[in-house]
Amino acid sequence: MDRLIEAIENAQNPSVVGLDPTPALVPPQVVASFADEVSDSVEDPAEIPAAQLAVAYFEFNRTIIDAVADIVPAVKPQIAMYEALGPAGVDVYTMTCEYAAQQGLYVLGDIKRGDIGSTAAAYAGHLSGVASGDTSFDPWHEDAVTVNPYLGTDGITPFVDAATAADKDIFVLVRTSNPSSKELQELDLADGGKLYEHVADLVESWGSATIGEHGYSRVGAVVGATHPEEGAALRKRMPHTFFLVPGYGAQGGTAAGVAGMFDADGSGAIVNSSRGIIGAWKKSGEYRDSMTADEALSLVASAARSAAQDMRDDLRINVYR
Amino acid sequence: MDRLIEAIENAQNPSVVGLDPTPALVPPQVVASFADEVSDSVEDPAEIPAAQLAVAYFEFNRTIIDAVADIVPAVKPQIAMYEALGPAGVDVYTMTCEYAAQQGLYVLGDIKRGDIGSTAAAYAGHLSGVASGDTSFDPWHEDAVTVNPYLGTDGITPFVDAATAADKDIFVLVRTSNPSSKELQELDLADGGKLYEHVADLVESWGSATIGEHGYSRVGAVVGATHPEEGAALRKRMPHTFFLVPGYGAQGGTAAGVAGMFDADGSGAIVNSSRGIIGAWKKSGEYRDSMTADEALSLVASAARSAAQDMRDDLRINVYR
């Protein structure tokens, strides 16, 4: 986790921008601007809308990345948004990761994978790349990925091994930000405590052999900003586990609410905002249907930059020391 | 679930072939046979090994599919094996799904996705395809997908909605076949019962509005063959939930062990085998390093067909009526 912690220190900003494009978050003239390019290159007419969105997603992401790269330490592309477009979307996911990495950002792939041991080892290729002879090939360009704990230790170990070998990290779901997360995660256990606390203890143990210079292991935890008290208790319970905190902004989490998820030194967590940054252009009041694609992208950039600065300042005031 | 159940009835065979290729499961001369084709079409030398494996995976899968299409009702490609090769692998995953569907097979995409509601809706594009204007585009070609329950109801509902709209199905992880599945799934709850039983009840309820002509809902459950007693108890506990049963063969599950996961009519479950079928050529004793690629693929086909017939007969004798 050292690389992420140092990137946060350099930026003096414990926030990560979620790159979760949807058709509604990309200005329509940007999508339309790729109509000719896509219809020339895609043979099957049925594939054109998805291909056009995919190209537009990359242009949109590149615009956001360029606008925030000197403000934030990291980005978190959510692969679901790209899978929704099929393989063309997956290509753009990897292009987005690669471009962000080239701009010096830590790339946290929100892929929430999880499977039994032998299959988890294949998923861990997201971190290790393709091992084949003497060439090294890293098709995903992720510095970390999110992982689901429901399968237990043998579904996690391959990711820890791959992360260790490649100087990368993972973040395991512990307490997610969504309302129905309580249905499983808050269940009371017969031996005391709740399920998410049991998972928290597993996560702390899964990372125990990989603690870095800054005191945190390679196995982080996902703890939603929508659970301030639980998050603060987990901070104490998991002293060597770095937190990825989703749910700030659009989902209702606040800087004051996430303050308890940071450690006494102001480290220990990174807070994600997706729609609040990449959709800021829609709330700016400056968008006009008559804008050109370039004008719309300029607004996307300036609104995202401003929102990222606001979030950084909010966290600096309330959380980060 | 009606389409799957009818496919099983037509084949008189409640088994599904897992299409989980690995570098070790594809005969090396098959991989080598694509060297020229790939080096001509791939620009970056670092990408060549993965691209060559990806092409070989498709040829291997097509060989297996052709060999078993008249014996089994379904195939289950495991997307992790393809993601391990990067986007080129994901392309081959979708090509494999499309080819299998064209051969009349029910395609069960083992993707184990799961996220919060808005993101789950994007993942549900695996089933719904890309909604865009008046063109319909289904890039994934899956008839069902596997889903992780850790996020609760709002992570499941989008999949159920998409499955219902598209006449497709999902299978939710309940009791997985791996050894450390017990770490979470067998936890005793304060209100009685174990975590996987609580998940089982959720799964039964998630499907309750989608029960088909054959009495099973669109929301199935993954129940490992390595847990015979628990599986039999779950069969009674979840009367409208169809089971996907992994872990037969290589992981130690037997036909006698899975018998209790079927209902009184011999329906209610489909049993997966992956390595036991697609890796049968390695155990045949007939493989020779001197074989050509075509000869090796012929052996792959005949060994897979024979293994699939053996599994079918094993299930017919012990389970299926």
TrEMBL record, chains A, B:
Q: What class of enzyme is it?
A: lyase
Q: Fetch the PROSITE patterns from UniProt.
A: OMPDECASE (PS00156)
What are the Orotidine 5'-phosphate decarboxylase domain coordinates in residue numbering?
A: 14-290
Alphabetically sorted, this entry's keywords are:
Decarboxylase, Lyase, Pyrimidine biosynthesis
Q: Which CDD domains match?
A: OMP_decarboxylase_like (cd04725)
According to its UniProt record, which residues of this chain constitute the active site? K112
EC number assigned by the record: 4.1.1.23
Q: Which reaction does it catalyse?
A: orotidine 5'-phosphate + H(+) = UMP + CO2
Which terms does the record give in the GO molecular function aspect?
Answer: orotidine-5'-phosphate decarboxylase activity
Annotated SUPFAM superfamilies: Ribulose-phoshate binding barrel
Lyase found in the keyword field: yes
* Protein's pathway: Pyrimidine metabolism; UMP biosynthesis via de novo pathway; UMP from orotate: step 2/2
GO biological-process terms attached to the record: 'de novo' pyrimidine nucleobase biosynthetic process; 'de novo' UMP biosynthetic process
Q: NCBIfam families per the record?
A: pyrF_sub2
The family line of this record is: Belongs to the OMP decarboxylase family. Type 2 subfamily.
* Record's protein name: Orotidine 5'-phosphate decarboxylase
* Native organism: Bifidobacterium goeldii
